[in-house]
Structure formats: structure tokens, C-alpha cells
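Task: sequence in, structure out. Protein: Glutamine amidotransferase class-II.
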Amino acid sequence: MCGIAGVMLKAHEDASPLDQLATGRWLYQMLQALQKRGPDSVGAAIDGASGFVVTVNGGENERLRVRKTLADQGVVGNWLGGGRDATALFHSTAMPTLAVREELDRQLADIRELVGIYMGLRVMKVMGSPERLNALFYLSDTPGVMAIGHTRLATESDIDLIHSQPFTADGPTVTIVHNGHITNYEQWRRRLTRQGRCFISENDSEVIAAYISYRLSCGLSLKESLDAMLVDLDGSFSVLALTQDEIGYVRDGFGLKPLMIAESDGAVFMASESQAIRQLGVPEVSIHEAWPGEARTWMKQSLALWN
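Result:
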């Protein structure tokens, strides 16, 4: 039993750039409300940061290598988190040149599976509580437009950062959180490996991120990729997915894992439990349960609309 949560701000006539500060705060509050569903680890991904983000899920050796490589390339920024049981996150407001990004990929190729390199996407994980995540990464003060989060109760794979969510796959980049179990994940892991996809864990949830990324690379939209999951992936699942441009959800055909949805003029909310949304105190929000076998997506609205 894990907990998942997501939020997307919607541009509207009364919107303000300050509204973007609500994204991290709302996600943090929802993760607090869902902590009882997953006390082992907690993670979040929030889109909308300006500049360049690097995350490291490895140990001290990997973090030192990334630090040195960034310094050698003249990339200046701030580090958050780190340590044995927390993601190390580097953020630079300056966008690196293509040559610098290619050099980072080249020098870190042998540990690339442990290193995330993103434009505007912050991914953070810790062992323990939402409060610890917030203390290390200031989630409640992080602006953004779309965000997803996860509280984990480990049932099969190891209790460590590598097996904690969110999971991100590249080519194109997609980030997911998942509550449930994929029964045919080994079959799809082998198939996706043959397609050149890399995996860092034994967690069945990681296959979902790679699967959606693979479907996107084949030309499907996010909605079509989530619909395809209902055909290809067996088991129980409620999944939230985040790309550069969209956020969405899918619930398995039997509705075995809970998923509650709420939408207002200003935001969309998704969570494993209705109380995680209700306790936010957002006015004029009606909460309903996602239908079994339902998939839905929302397009990220341009930040220009907030000015």
C-alpha cells in the first residue's frame, strides 16, 4: 500500500505568477496526509524550475564525480540534499550550452543511469518522512506548474533510494509514481531492454516509466500511451505520469487501487485518498473517484499566460 499525489495549476483570468508557489506546498501537504500509506520513503517531482537540474541517486563516489564534472565545465549552481539516504540535487539558473550537456553525458556515461539531467524538472527522494523531504529540499517553497509525489511502503524490492519513487525514463523524459503491482513486468523489462532501455532497480514500477517513454518515442501521445498500458501491462495500478508538456493518470481496468480526482478553474488534484485533497481547503473543488480503466491527461499551460 503506497500513496500517490499530483497537482497541476491551470492558467485563468485571475491567475498570478505567485500562484506557482502553491504547487510545492499543496504537494507537500498531500504527501503528509498520505504518509501512513508509505512510511519507508518519500519522493517528489516538480516541473517549472528555471534553468538546469542534475540529480544523483548514487553514493558518495558518484556525487563527487558529478560535482567535479560540473565544476570542470564551469557550471555554477547550488546543491541540496545528499548523504546516504537522500537524493543529491544540483540546480543552476543558467542554461548550459549543448556542448556542455554533451560533455556531461560523455564523462558520466558509465553512471548515467544514476544521474538525471533535466531542464526545469526537480526530482527528489529521501528515506523517511515528507517532513524530512521538505527540510532537505524545501518542497513547500518550490514553485512549479505540475508536480507528482509518492509515499512508499516496500513490499518486495529493497528499501533504498534506488527503489524509491518517482521513477524517470529518458528519451523522451517521463516521470511516474505508481501504487500497485505489475505482474508481467519481467516480460516487459526484457523487451524494453532489447529496445535499449536501461534500468537501475528491480522495482516493477520502473518498467512503467520506461514503457511510457518507449510508447512516446513511437509517436503516441501521453493519453494514447496510458491507454496502451491498459492492454499491455497486467496487474493492479494507479499511475500518475508527468512529461515536459503534460500530466495524466491511468487506473487499471478492475479499479483495484484507489485514485481520487478533483478539478477546479485553477488546478487539478490527484491522490490515493480523498482526504489528502480535502484537507487542502481549496474552495469549489468536487472530488470523485477515477473510473476503472480510465486514463486522462491535461496539457501544461504556457507560463506566458501567468504574466
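The helical segments are 21-33, 60-72, 98-107, 130-137, 185-194, 204-217, 222-232, 274-278.
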